[in-house]
Design a protein that fits this description.
The complex is a heterodimer of chains A (565) and B (547). Chain A has helices spanning 2-6, 16-34, 59-65, 71-87, 91-110, 115-136, 148-160, 165-182, 256-285, 302-310, 321-331, 384-407, 416-441, 446-449, 454-462, 467-478, 480-488, 493-505, 522-525, 531-549; strands spanning 11-14, 43-47, 53-56, 138-139, 194-200, 208-210, 213-215, 227-236, 251-253, 291-296, 313-316, 348-358, 361-369, 375-381, 409-412, 511-512, 519-520, 528-530, 553-556. Chain A is of the alpha+beta class. Chain A has a six-stranded mixed beta sheet, sandwiched between helices. A three-stranded antiparallel beta sheet of chain A has the order 4-15-18, with helices on both faces. The longest helix of chain A has 30 residues, at 256-285. Chain B is built from 17 helices and 17 strands. The relative contact order of chain B is 0.18. Chain B has an eight-stranded mixed beta sheet with strand order 4-12-5-11-10-6-8-9, sandwiched between helices. Chain B has a two-stranded antiparallel ribbon with strand order 1-17. In chain B, strands 2-3 form a two-stranded antiparallel ribbon. Classes of the chains: A alpha+beta (565), B alpha+beta (547). Chain A: Keywords: ATP-binding, Chaperone, Cytoplasm, Nucleotide-binding.
């Protein structure tokens, strides 16, 4: 081989070997993730190098944690991760869709078809499917007041695929309320404004939404109050501790008196700042029973804490940067960077501030705020893996709700879209492809036959007629989602597909009921998927599958760092 | 050519890094997991109840533990198997939440998993078992609420009798035969430190001081603290004194920036030490003048400062732990000052007596505060060996945690397996009403409750089958409070024996157990990374499968 001549150490796989390696890898990955799909999917247990346990049903997490090595599998996994970045959901679907595309292609390739032709078919089918998706989607009007019900349905559909039902239903409300809480009209939703905090405590169903903020540290002074009502909140980024000067300075003194004076002088500037805060506190709190809370991003040293504690001020130091931003959104007021011009207007307000101690960990709750535009989802669970599982689910749920608001549309779930798209491709496109064949014989009829699929036709005419097999493979691959859903629920795959395609041919849009295996109306059941998720799957799946199919040589050159055995 | 590239094995194995293990399916994953959990619960089970056996565990640091406290056992076992680890985590969660009942959690989870295995072998799908177990645990909790002893929801947490009646069962399961002594110590200590609102009871306020020597009957409760150190100065005993607490240390003050003494002549040098001395004396004098007799330092005590303290007849104590210092402040009602100087009269604390005593060859400082602000109490435990002391301490901890739990929720349920048998009976009845396949799972769940009376009687050397059948007979005739009297080996009404368990303990233990078991059952694939590197231990850690 020519490569051998150039580099005797290079490894090479060519033609069908390369193709089959890719197909096998795609199928293998599909096999791994297949059982995850849908509400009835099973859980995988991942054991890390240090023996730590992770339980997951989320395709993305699984791909990330699995440490895949096969180059093809890595490529597919990357697409899935991109899927997650863009839409936050649908990773498993992407992987199994790619796997299925490869599997369907394998059949045709084994029969001697050239991959290029299939790829052309994929391209046509992809475009047609995307157009179909535009028609198929259900628009949702997102005015000032989004329809909470539909958001809940979307969130529920997503979260139920990650967690068991009763917990998922509880999270749904939390997630929708959280997103609506941070949503501002005319602005993109920043999900970072939802703080996700976890406590290892009680049960997973005790997870709740805190309208306000939960900070994962407490006040550092034993004499500060643990609980305060009607609090003014000063959010600041002012150092309340002595900082060494940049230059290398030293004190010279010749008796203890002088040294005492220096000790005092050293503290003075810090004390001044603390006094300014105390002044403000006295201004707003005198004569009523309100309390004063200082949340500082920088440090507060013990003497300053002591001064504040004596005034009955609760002070928290070293708050996180992102929490400062959220605090202002939650409580109002503004974050101040200097204590020179403190006014009561800078202060936020919260009805209740309290500290919760869990073993060694301290948590500070800032609750009962007015008009919050930031909130906290407080995840509870008896152990770390439960918490991690909920956290992933919450993240995906939040994304799903955000997507819905931004897409202003949803897609019917439970496999309804896939079946509809497949039927559309087979019935409509097949007809037109047959039209093309006829047209090749008598090309005068082209435009006449395809008046309603004009754009598609133009493409089809240009494609080779064999491309219809690619379209067919694509259409069949779409069914994999449905097949897997049925399989995971212990249903008979063939029965389900026949039942569903039959209904669709009769013009009813139906999905699969996981419990009974009967066709159901997803709209009635409230099963909706994100439009952007589906679009992304259809967009990215064929692209990667095409790329993999067109590979005819895999070369590994360069030095192998690991010892060859 | 490296393997894995040209040879293309099909499936997941080809995709993972070397050293990964992948287990999937019913046989490989689910049953193996169940097996591991069963092994774990077999270990803990024999320690359940008052007659439970002790385990001798030597951990990786060669520290010896002799205990029947399940939380300690599983903690030191360093369980490797991932599924068994889930059970361990459930036990830990129980320990953190309630502080007692970890054994019940692990043993019960093991038992229902064993039930699940039988069901799987019968042909049930794990998802049906999960749904059955979920229904069963929900029903169990409902029934548990009904079983609550009437009148127990209100209690006076300051009444020793009532406290002991609720604490006895928990302590007896750790130190059988000595529960009365321990309970009374713990109850005394807890009641003393119980704040006005019992819900705010802080476990940290009951301290345990372990002193080698003597026996349990020498143990006492001290209102105040026992510091395992001597005083710094020569004054060893003082009574009815005011206390000044300095967090920063009793020494000359220093600047944050480095200071240099600027001396030009020998005279200045002499003068410098004089001014230094004068300064310290001034400070100590100020402290003495404020009325304080005891000075407590959180940091170092300077030689010079000590000298002046002696001169002004001040007792000096050094407490270097920050938390200990805080507790000291709570005991005496003092406010810790950061810098040495004249304290405010408000900041001074008060002690009835501070004295250094020698107990069992160790010098300890006993700080007593009988009257105001008695917010810390210490149980001084005496015992002949370290392991006995450790075990006693765990029993005391369990007692204190039980007290905390009862402060929040004082409801009790009958102990001595009476509740379990009743649950078994009623959940079983519930299973007959279900129509789906999950009724088998519910029935299995009900049967699993029998594990507790069985284990209790087995551990006590009684005939388990006989006991269980007579328990069932009693319960069937409506005597819902009949439990096992382990001493006589007969079934008795628990109200005559006074064995009560807290409702919350049972509630959390059963819930955590069921949750853990369902989690184990939900897993159908395990992907294990290659264990991270690091220095190999001399002996390979025995996995659960090697037993």
């Amino acid at each position: 081989m020519s490569l051998r001549v150039l580099n005797p150490n290079a490894e090479v796989l060519n033609k069908s070997a390369a193709l089959h390696m890719n197909i096998n890898a795609a199928k293998g990955l599909q096999d791994v993730l297949k059982t995850n799909l849908g509400p009835k999917g099973t859980i995988k247990m991942l054991v890390g190098g240090a023996g730590d346990i992770k339980l997951t049903k989320d395709g993305n997490t699984l791909l990330k944690e699995m440490q895949i090595q096969n180059p093809t599998a890595i490529m597919i996994a990357r697409t899935a991760v991109a899927q997650d970045d863009i839409s936050g959901d649908g990773t498993t679907s992407t992987v199994i869709f790619i796997g299925e595309l490869m599997k369907q292609s394998e059949r045709y390739i084994d029969e001697g078809m050239h991959p290029r032709v299939l790829v052309d078919g994929f391209e046509i089918a992809k475009k047609a499917t995307l157009q179909f998706l535009e028609k198929f989607k259900t628009p949702v009007v997102m005015g000032d007041e989004p329809d909470k019900e539909i958001l809940k349905m979307v969130a529920r559909t997503t979260v139920r695929t990650k967690l068991y039902e009763s917990l998922a239903d509880k999270l749904t409300d939390i997630i929708v309320n959280a997103v609506l809480c941070i949503r501002k009209p005319e602005e993109a939703i920043d999900l970072f404004m939802v703080e996700i905090m976890h406590m290892r405590h009680k049960f997973d169903v005790d997870t709740r939404l805190v309208e306000g903020l939960v900070l994962d540290h407490g006040s550092r002074h034993p004499d500060m109050k643990r609980r305060a009502e009607n609090c003014y909140i000063l959010t600041c980024n002012v150092s309340l501790e002595y900082e060494k000067s940049e230059i290398n300075a030293g004190f010279f003194y010749s008796n203890a008196e002088q040294r005492e004076a220096m000790v005092a002088a050293e503290r003075r500037s810090v004390d001044e700042r603390v006094k300014k805060i105390i002044e403000l506190k006295n201004k707003v709190c005198s004569g009523n029973d309100s309390n004063f809370v200082v949340i500082n991003q920088k440090g507060i040293d013990p003497p300053s804490l002591d001064m504040l504690a004596r005034e009955g001020i609760i002070a928290l130091r070293r708050a996180k940067r992102r929490n400062m931003e959220r605090l202002v959104l939650a409580c109002g007021g503004e974050a101040v960077n200097s204590v020179d011009d403190l006014t009561p207007e800078c202060l936020g307000w919260a009805g209740l501030v309290y500290e919760h101690v869990l073993g060694e960990e301290k948590y500070t709750f800032v609750e009962n705020v007015k008009n919050p535009s930031s909130c906290t989802i407080l995840i509870k669970g008896p152990n770390d893996h439960t918490i991690a599982q909920i956290k992933d689910a919450v993240r995906d749920g939040l994304r799903a709700v955000k997507n819905t608001i931004e897409d202003e549309s949803v897609v019917l779930g439970a496999g309804a879209f896939e079946v509809a798209a497949r039927q559309y491709l087979i019935n409509e496109v097949k007809k037109t492809v047959q039209g093309v064949i006829q047209n090749l014989m008598s090309s005068n009829y082209v435009l006449f036959f395809n008046y309603h699929l004009h754009i598609l036709m133009v493409m089809l005419i240009n494609s080779k007629q064999r491309a219809q097999l690619g379209v067919e493979a694509f259409a069949d691959a779409l069914l994999v989602v449905l097949k897997t859903l049925a399989e995971n629920s212990g249903l008979d795959t063939q029965d389900v597909i026949i039942a569903l395609t039959g209904e669709h041919d009769r013009g009813n849009v139906v999905g699969l009921s996981q419990n009974t295996g009967e066709p159901i109306d997803p709209q009635m059941e409230g099963i909706f998927d994100n439009y952007s998720v589906k679009r992304q799957i259809i967009n990215s799946g064929p692209v990667i599958a095409s790329q993999l199919l067109l590979v005819d040589e895999v070369i590994r050159a360069g030095r192998n760092m690991r010892k060859p055995t | 050519m490296a393997p894995g590239f040209n040879i293309q094995p099909y499936g997941i194995q080809s995709m993972l890094k070397e050293g990964h293990k992948h287990l999937s399916g019913l046989d490989e994953a689910v049953l193996k997991n169940i097996d591991a959990c069963k092994q774990l619960s077999t270990i803990t089970r024999t320690s359940l109840g008052p007659n439970g056996m002790n385990k001798m565990v030597i951990n990786h640091l060669d520290k010896l533990f002799v205990t029947n406290d399940a939380a300690t056992i599983v903690n030191e076992l360093e369980v490797q198997h991932p599924a068994a680890k889930i059970l361990v985590l459930a036990g830990k969660a129980q320990q953190e939440e309630i502080g007692d009942g970890a054994n019940l959690t692990i043993s019960f989870a093991g038992e229902i998993l064993q039930g699940a295995e039988e069901l799987i072998r019968m042909g049930l799908h794990p998802s049906e078992i999960i749904s059955g177990y979920t229904k069963a645990i929900n029903k169990t909790i409902e029934i548990l609420d009904e079983l609550v002893e009437k009148g127990s929801e209100t209690m006076d947490v300051r009444d020793k009798e009532q406290v002991i009646s609720r604490m006895r069962a928990a302590v007896a399961s750790k130190q059988y035969g000595q529960e009365d002594t321990i309970c009374s110590l713990v109850a005394d200590a807890c009641i003393q430190v119980c704040p006005k609102n019992p819900a705010n009871f802080n476990v940290d306020n009951v301290r345990v001081a372990k002193l080698l020597g003597g026996g349990l009957h020498n143990s006492t409760v001290v209102r105040g603290m026992v510091l395992k150190s001597d005083t710094v100065g020569t004054i060893k005993r003082i009574e009815k004194a005011k206390v000044a607490v300095f967090a920063g240390g009793v020494d000359t003050s220093a600047t944050e920036t480095k200071g240099t003494v600027l001396i030009h002549t020998a005279e200045q040098l002499e003068n410098y030490s004089k001014t230094e001395e004068a300064k310290v004396e001034e400070l100590i004098k100020a402290v003495a003048e404020s009325g304080a007799k005891v000075v407590v330092s959180g940091g170092s005590v300077g030689e010079m400062a000590l000298h002046f303290c002696e001169r002004y007849k001040l007792m000096v104590l050094k407490i270097s732990s920050k938390f200990e210092l805080r507790r000291f402040c709570r005991t005496t009602g003092a406010v810790a000052m950061l810098k040495l100087g004249q304290p405010n009269p408000d900041d001074l604390g008060y002690v009835d007596s501070v004295s250094v005593e020698e107990i069992g060859g160790v010098r300890v400082t006993i700080v007593k505060n009988e009257e105001g602000g008695n917010s810390v109490a210490t149980v001084v435990l005496r015992g002949s060996t370290d392991s006995i002391l450790d075990d006693l301490e765990r029993a005391v901890d369990d007692g204190v945690n039980t007290y905390k739990a009862m402060c929040r929720d004082s409801r009790t349920v009958p102990g001595a397996a009476a509740t379990e048998i009743e649950l078994a009976k009623r959940v079983k009845e519930f299973s007959f009403k279900e129509t789906g396949l999950d009724q088998y799972a519910i029935a299995k769940f009900a049967e699993s409750f029998e594990m507790i009376p069985r284990t209790l009687s087995e551990n006590a050397g009684l005939n388990a089958m006989e006991i269980i059948s007579s328990l069932y007979a009693e319960h069937a005739s409506g005597n819902t409070k009949v439990g096992i009297d382990l001493e006589e080996g007969v079934c008795k009404d628990v109200s005559t024996m006074g064995v009560w368990d807290l409702h919350v303990t049972k509630f959390f233990a059963l819930k955590y157990a069921a949750d853990a078991a369902c989690t184990v059952l939900r897993v159908d694939q395990i992907i294990m990374a290659k264990p991270a590197g690091g220095p190999r231990r001399e002996q390979p850690a025995a996995g659960m499968d090697d037993d």
